[in-house]
């Protein structure tokens, strides 16, 4: 049994060397500022004991036969991809949004696929390195980051054209024991509370960009790594405690200041032809994950919109019904794209199934471009109160609380406390630092919508569509 408890996870974080910086301070991983973000990860350990979730979460390692957490597993069948998607939707309901841990699952799968392809082409041994690492990762129920997005400098310049070559993470030295890398990865979710950083390239490379074609895994507290973090949490509650307010997130700039990586932790080093393949394979898996987690966000927005409509007595008005139906369509279409991506998955040389890129991209694109519209619906139905609701202290104050309870009343039969709860939840969800974070994540996480459009175009068989039009128009085949 390779399942670890959330306490074991927290204990091992405490033992790591301090290299986390947050909000102007160098902090230990037991700093209270990280409590809520770490709670989100703890949930992924505790969910294996949850009667409603355990069958989705618990699986078997194909390497060792041991029971493992699905967040550490490979997708070795179409069924695995369906289960991943379902697991993400259900888990996201519980933490009110991103469970964060899926990113590493997607990265492991992508490295598994591409390391095998590199070995077959180049005679290297990256896939053996990967499998050994995966055994260790599964046996210890580890948490990994996805350190993909480089800081990128001038967006119009390729890695080799940057004024400062460190704008993309690169190898600066190789020796018999390993490699030394320099650069920084940006926006790295979970930076302060992962066991390992899983590093993959962010884009394709050209022949002269082999130094930037890099993939490896390294303990998050390895010498030379600095994790500069921003913590985002829902507003604290005093009396009105609610599950949503117990989870948070942190994203980091992860600096690799001449960091040594031993060869057995390297999965790509110089094979520039495969950098784009690895980046896109990760994107394919991760956008498939979004087809599970984004419908969960839609479910939350839909549920909150419908509930506040009920409480306000506007549930039967036609514009409310129409807007709620739109949310249903968005959520289920995104989810359906994920199912299609799984149904059309391809088995790769590694044995891992990759979701059909076209459908994981269309699902992710739809989710990314509709996210502000979804909040628009919530804000429109909720009215202005989530942005102006008096602080909880004023509800607790005996001089003002009774007035608030009296004058916030809506449909008869709805308790003052439940009204207070739904409006404060919507305020936290849509009109707060956490709400703003989720909106940006909804657009850019896993790749901005324009990147999905590029992905869709790049593999789309447009010629076949022209042939249909020619046939229907009676146009003979042209030379
Ligand atoms: C909340 C959140 C969490 C994230 N977590 C992670 C994580 O854990 N790991 C990780 O690796 N990444 C993570 N990301 C990064 C995410 O994948 C990127 O934000 C996304 O790929 C966009 O990159 P960018 O933010 O650097 O924006 P930019 O690349 O600056 O993009 C801004 C705009 O410029 C356009 N643009 C950029 N370059 C070009 C070009 N050459 N030609 C034309 N247009 C261009 C883009 O299309 C976009 O419209 C996260 C992002 C967010 C918001």
Q: What is the radius of gyration?
A: 24 Å
Query: Order of strands across the biggest sheet?
Result: 2-1-10-11-7-6
Bound molecules: flavin-adenine dinucleotide
Number of strands: 14
Could you please say which CATH topology of one domain applies here? Butyryl-CoA Dehydrogenase, subunit A, domain 3
**Proportion of residues in β-strands:** 15-25%
What structural class do the secondary elements suggest? alpha+beta
**CA(first)-CA(last) distance:** 64 Å
**Into which percent range does the helicity of residues fall?**
40-55%
Low-confidence stretches: none
Principal-axis shape equals globular
Give short descriptive properties of this protein.
single chain; 479 residues; alpha+beta; Butyryl-CoA Dehydrogenase, subunit A, domain 3; 6-stranded mixed beta sheet; 4-stranded mixed beta sheet; 16 helices; binds flavin-adenine dinucleotide
